[in-house]
Amino acid sequence: MNWLDPFSVSLLLSGVIFVLAAEWMARRPPQKINSLYGYRTPASMASQERWDFAQKASAIRSRFWGWVMITLAMFGYGLGGLPIAIGVVLSIGILITCCVLLLTGTEKDIKKHFGPVQRG
Questions:
Q1: Would you list the DSSP string of 81-99?
Q2: In a domain, 42, yes or no
Q3: Whole-structure pTM over 0.85, yes or no?
Q4: If exposure means fewest CB atoms within 10 Å of the residue's CB, which of 27, 52, 86, 99 is most exposed?
Q5: In a domain, 90, yes or no
């Protein structure tokens, strides 16, 4: 088993970061809308109520996708490693997919709970 397998190492580290960030957000969510810290999209920043909801929803989804990446990393270690180029491209693809699913899922939750953002 190669403990430095790029596929598994990158997914493991990404997954751990997702889970730790989710735990931080769940325990210390930003109290007020800001541009530095928290889940920041136009839909989440449209009101304080949306902001508070989005912080909780994104923490839950981030934790879930973090554990998915950690699990995939463990499977990667179990397989004995992929060729470096394939492992790097595949892990980046999985990371991007998890980020997109985190964002789209949270935005869908906000829209479902509050409806679309009223413009101008």
A1: ---HHHHHHHHHHHHHHHH
A2: yes
A3: yes
A4: 27
A5: yes
